[in-house]
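# step 3/5: fold
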Amino acid sequence: MTKIPLTIVCPLFALNIHAALLPLQEARIRANEQNQPIVLLATGGDWLPGAEKTLESWKKLETAGADKAIWALYVQTAQETNESVREAKLPAEIYNLPEALVMTPQGRLVARIPAAVVRNGDENSTAVDKALETYKAQTDLLARADKAQGREKARLLGEALDTMALPDALSRKDLINALKKADPNDETGYVFKYELGAMPYAPGSIGRLYGQLDRLMTENGTKKGKARNFKAAEDFLRKKLELPVLDVPQKQLLNVALAYVARQQYLSGYQNAKRKMIACFETAAALAPETELGKGSRGYIDYYDKVIELYGLDFESVHMRREFSTWMVIVSNSIKKPGNYIIRIVKDGGSDHVSVRNVRIYVDGKKAAELPEEQQNKDSQEFELALPELRPGAHVVLQMDAKGNGHWMNCWGHIEIHQK
């Protein structure tokens, strides 16, 4: 998303500016003197379609609510630079114009009113009133926190942060630092909550979470592969999921992290961990299906758990997965009577190769032939299956577990079936 820098403009192009809509710096001074919140409209000059109409509706809001807040205006020119934004020291970056911010008398962010609402004059009044209610609730909680100590202080600071949308709360480093100081052992869980953040607002903190999980699994680099301590990482995440202060996006992220741990376990040779991994993705997807993590979790479920159907006896790179997945192909035309069958995997081209194991035959939906136990879970390119009986016209399906190898999994070929 393109970030749009803002600055005060003088003159303000063709906009007819209402005198009570103060420049931001002047608004901050007056808000501090009168101990009132600031309602800031950030908009554009005459280059922005609808800017004049938005400003007219904002004038009416200011007239009706002059006693509720200090009203301010910030206008962007069409030639702005990022340097001007930093110099202006806005409490938050603005991405889409017009947008409104509600701030403390000291100029710290409390709430945003998005562009779609700001453009809709009918919704502005309700949105501003709601944002000012958030400011009042936050101010009351912080006043109580000033008189408290330890865990109770941390709880009140955490609840004050909770009055804000999570991405906005993450910008309040003043409150987060005070929270850490009041609760150094994180008895409330709020320190973890605001260090974790949430997708897509805090990718750096998410990277730190995965780094912490890797350190737990490897016991600070002392264990590798199958010897890693997967249980330590899983226990850590499940304990965090019990925290009542977490938001749904954070619970979703932690379930995806659980799937990550289970995947590492599965790749290390623990076959049962695959089902656990998929269950974690299912939980994550159910929490918030329409988020990026929700959609991504559903994609991973299909990737790892969906049977891959071959059309004919040919296979290509598109059928490959980096972990073993089930391939199936209808072979009613190739297997028409009982007997012993040789199943051969033939590579026709490509720089990589495919691993195949656990070939089996299903007849009318029921398993009818499989490898002897001593041949299970062993890779090969040729298998022999004994099919004891087969009725004429039966629906016959060949299944196998297959995995692509190599960086690009660049391999294609075909399956040969011969009766012995």
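# step 4/5: annotate
The CA atoms of residues 355 and 403 lie 5 Å apart.
# step 5/5: archive (pending)
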